[in-house]
Amino acid sequence: MLPQDTKHTPMMEQYFEIKNEYQNEFLFFRLGDFYELFYEDAIKASQLLELTLTSRNKNAKEPIPMAGVPYHSAQGYIDRLIEQGYKVAICEQVEDPKEAKGMVKREVVQVITPGTVMQGEAVHEDENNFLAAILEKEDAYALAYVDLTTGELRATKLHSKAEVYSEIAGLEVKEVLFYDGESVELRAELEKRLGTVFSYLNKEVQAMKEETFQELTDEVSDGTILPVLKLLLNYLAKTQMRSLDHLQLAEQYDTSHYLVFTQEVRRNLELTTSLRDGSRNGTLLWVLDQTKTAMGGRMLKSWLDKPLINIHEINQRQDLVENMLNHFFERTDLNESLTRVYDLERLAGRVAYGTVNARDLIQLKRSLQQIPQIIEIISLMNVDGAWDGLLHQIDPVTEVTDLIERAIEEEPPISIMEGEIIKDGFNTQLDQYRDAMTNGKQWLAELEAKERQETGIRNLKVGFNKVFGYFIEITKANLDRVEEGRYERKQTLTNSERFITPELKEMESTILGAEEKSQALEYELFVAIRDEVKMEIERIQKLARLVAQIDVLQSFAQVSEENYFTRPVFHEDSQDVHIEEGRHPVVEHVMKEQEYVPNDVSLEEGTDILLITGPNMSGKSTYMRQVALIIIMAQMGCFVPATKAELPIFDQVFARIGAMDDLISGQSTFMVEMNETNQAISNATPNSLLLFDEIGRGTATYDGMALAESIIEYVHDRVGAKTLFSTHYHELTALEERLERLENIHVGAVEEDGDLVFLHKMSPGSADKSYGVQVAKLAGLPTSVLNRASTILVELEKKNEDSPIVLGTPADLEVEQDEEKSKKEDKVEEDGGQLSLFGGTWSEHEEKVLEDLKKLDVLNLTPLEAMNLLNELQNKLQDE
User: Fold this and answer.
1) 635 and which of 236, 307, 319, 592 could share a cystine (Cβ 3.0–4.6 Å)?
2) In this protein, which residues make up the domain named DNA mismatch repair proteins mutS family (predicted)?
3) What is the CATH classification number for the domain harbouring 598?
4) In this structure, is residue 403 part of a structural domain?
5) 406 in a domain, yes or no?
6) Nearest alpha-carbon partner for 748 in 619, 591, 642, 624
């Protein structure tokens, strides 16, 4: 709380009034050339930003904690606060202190948040900076998001919390917005799982004009989505308090129109973030990104996040990639031109936002100057009209190029307030001011030379400062050489004296008047030029999207050429998968000179499930991942790491690979594994891809084996999705005999002189053993441990031979259940009417339990379903 129970100065009273409206933000309060922070803001900022903490009214009974940052370097401090998840309210002096009657008027002119930051280090050139809003409505969730730096505005409708989380995490949203007091449960869950900032808006706030809202949402028809767009746009209007003319029309999309995968799949496949260190290195994005522009880099990431499922659109992209591969020299020239294109999207955003400077406009001009060359290169590659659709859309926006060329100096200063921005000849009045300034400065040079000659003082100089204006400076050693009355003394310094003359003051008035008028006129001209460019923002944004698309396609061509990728072929009338000599694009890229062992994948001719066995470290997980990555790359429109690939169109990818606890939610590896498995088998369709890596390993052996078998049966009998399932439970390989669409494959390994050598090659059939002890040897375990493990292994294998584990069939299960029920009924009689299996009194539950047990006899349940039903019965009886 701010201490307002004592009397304060009018300026501090003004501060309190403004701060009360922005209690959750750092208030940067403008005082002259500094932004000052007071009280808790000052104390906290001094710690976060390493500022000196001082105090206002030091001699008062309760001094006010204070810290400040210079106005001209404030952006760096703001960036650091935003990067740490804080918000900053910028309070400016909104009237000239010279004209103010009493206290200078101050207002908050912008609130900068992690999701609304427009410039500085918090904005990364190859990443979008998304602000998202969520609205919960009955059984649906409306999601809208915007990148204020580019103007992109999109919205969709989702149907579960899991989908909401996955969409937000995939977009890497920087700030999530809700209405105050709504969606409490969803908010809590997202706050637990997402490392992002959460903000809230009062539902009564209507900051955006209704007509502006109508214009931006004109193409949105879904009544569920419009309210969340209103939430998002009202928040923008309330925090930014300026023109948002660069916002693009809201685009409504459906996630089912793209290849769907969850955030867990993104993580497990390392699409954009490495599991090792959280960076981009070692990810699919890292391999594919050879884009030359910032907007191309962002578009590549969005294509990776949402691969296509429309075969026509995929083929269109692949046609253009193939075209580029066939035009090496043109592609080289294209890359050179693209390298000279700056971030058109964000330059357009800064123009609309009013934060663009003269150097930004020069970047815009130089970017636009590359467009005619890009058009010419694309035209040379336009064999059989491959590029017709795109070529007809490219608009070089030459009017903007010509305007900036005529108006703006090639090497302007950063500041737009100090002149030297506008070219000579652009404005007649400005040229006249400059002529007066030039003549005046020539007069000063001549005056200095004349006074040196007449006084004989060789180091006499004519100088200038903002306090005294122009002056003549003479060192004290030469003062005796100045005749009395020649100059009027103005200032005494330690080693010199400063003088003026009436003529000098008259010329000062001329020069400074011309300079002040010149700077004011230059600023007016610059604002007018900026407004003229602003009229063409929509054209520039459209051009930016087309250039980004060209950039991503050339990146695909470059990567495909360097890594010997091939064009995949899609078929619509079959779900068969046939990949010859497929490779993992990232692993192969990292290995470099080492030889990567390619592998075939065949899920055709009635095979839906590949059951993969083999030792640890032999490449099972890599094999599974490479299948998913090849499919994702193919549906992005890229070529793939294989000598041949014939694929169907997949609708979803589920991948449970690797062991990872969810420490934030307090879930163990096994619980995470079960949750992800449940999500996969509950949502997959026959057009989906499932990857399961050693499901069941997180629990006891028999439990894990039972779960694994049951899951395989469920996928085989009820889902029908293409599935790769790796396991160390060799007993599961017997499933091939009774599941007609399951096939065993294994990774080969051989022992040479007691050492294990991995072949990394997939072969038909099952592995004969797991080589666990040999893998432990490779890991460097002590010899004594390895020897003891070998001895124990022999003993265990002998025991297993005496009483082997035999996988059951549904019929076997029925017999076992009959026998077990008979034994339990006998046991009930022996126990005198007590149901020892479940607890509880048999007489109270006999009819219900017998009814449920009979269901086990007549229903074709998997072992997992049977276990679940028995557990439910047990819980019911215990509750009752």
Assistant:
1) 307
2) 688-704
3) 3.40.50.300
4) no
5) no
6) 619
Write the CB contacts of 776 (distance below 8 Å, at least 6 apart in sequence): 785, 786, 789
Shared domain for 600 and 649, answered yes or no, is yes
In a domain, 335, yes or no: yes
Gap between the Cα atoms of 681 and 11, Å rounded: 65
Q: What is the pLDDT of residue 241?
A: 92
Residue 523's domain is classified under what CATH number? Answer: 1.10.1420.10
- Determine the Cα–Cα distance for residues 199 and 54; give it in Å rounded to an integer: 31
Is the confidence at residue 373, as pLDDT, over 70?
A: yes
Per the DSSP assignment, residues forming a β-bridge with 491 are 498
3-state secondary structure of 278: coil
* Residue 440 and residue 514 in contact, taking contact as beta carbons nearer than 8 Å: yes
Most confident of 133-137, 763-767, 800-804, 823-827: 133-137
Name every residue whose Cβ is closer than 8 Å to that of residue 395 and which is 6 or more positions away in sequence. 539, 542, 543
- pLDDT value of residue 775: 54
Segment 105-123 shows an average pLDDT of 92
Residues 240 and 174 in one domain: yes
In this prediction, residue 753 carries a pLDDT of: 64
**Residue 173 and residue 232 in one domain:** yes
Residue 313 has pLDDT above 60, yes or no: yes
- Is it the case that residue 202 has pLDDT exceeding 90? yes
As a whole number of angstroms, the distance between CA 533 and CA 402 comes to: 11
For 162, other C-beta atoms within 10 Å of its C-beta total 16
Q: Which of 742, 770, 798 is the last residue of a domain?
A: 770
Q: How far apart are CA 628 and CA 307, in angstroms?
A: 12
Q: Do 592 and 693 belong to one domain?
A: yes
Catalogue the long-range contacts made by 701-709 (C-beta closer than 8 Å, 24 or more residues apart). 702/805, 704/729, 705/729, 705/731, 705/732, 705/805, 706/863, 706/864, 706/867, 707/864, 708/732, 709/735, 709/807, 709/862, 709/863
Is the pLDDT assigned to residue 785 strictly greater than 90? Answer: no
> Has residue 843 got a pLDDT over 70?
no
CATH code: domain of residue 146: 3.30.420.110
Question: How far is 105 from 14, CA to CA, in rounded Å?
Answer: 9
SS3 for 664? coil
Summarize the annotated binding site for ATP as residue ranges.
614-621
**In this predicted model, what pLDDT tens digit does every residue of 234-285 receive, in sequence order?**
999 999 998 899 999 999 999 999 999 999 899 999 999 998 888 899 999 9
Q: Are residues 728 and 870 in the same domain?
A: no
pLDDT for position 558: 98
Q: Given the structure tokens 């010419």, which residue do they identify?
A: 376
The pair of structure tokens assigned to 695 is: 């499901």
Question: How far, in Å, CA of 132 to CA of 556, rounded?
Answer: 30
Q: Which residues pair with 652 in a beta bridge?
A: 260
| Same-domain status, 601 and 745 | yes
Which residues are documented as binding site?
Answer: 614-621
Quote the pLDDT of residue 770. 58
- CB-CB contact of 583 with 595 (8 Å): no
Rounded to whole angstroms, the Cα distance separating 162 from 165 reads: 5
Tokens found for residue 640: 């793939």
Q: Is residue 801 part of a domain?
A: no
Domains identified in the chain, total number? 6
- Tally helices (H) and strands (E) across the chain: 29, 26
For residue 872, what are its two tokens?
A: 């439910």
Domain containing residue 457:
428-531
Instruction: Reply yes or no on whether the pLDDT at 544 is more than 80.
Output: yes
> Do 715 and 666 sit in the same domain of this protein?
yes
Show which of 51, 79, 112 is a domain's final residue.
112
What share of the chain has pLDDT > 90, as a percent? 63
Q: How many CA within 13 A on the CB side of residue 240?
A: 24
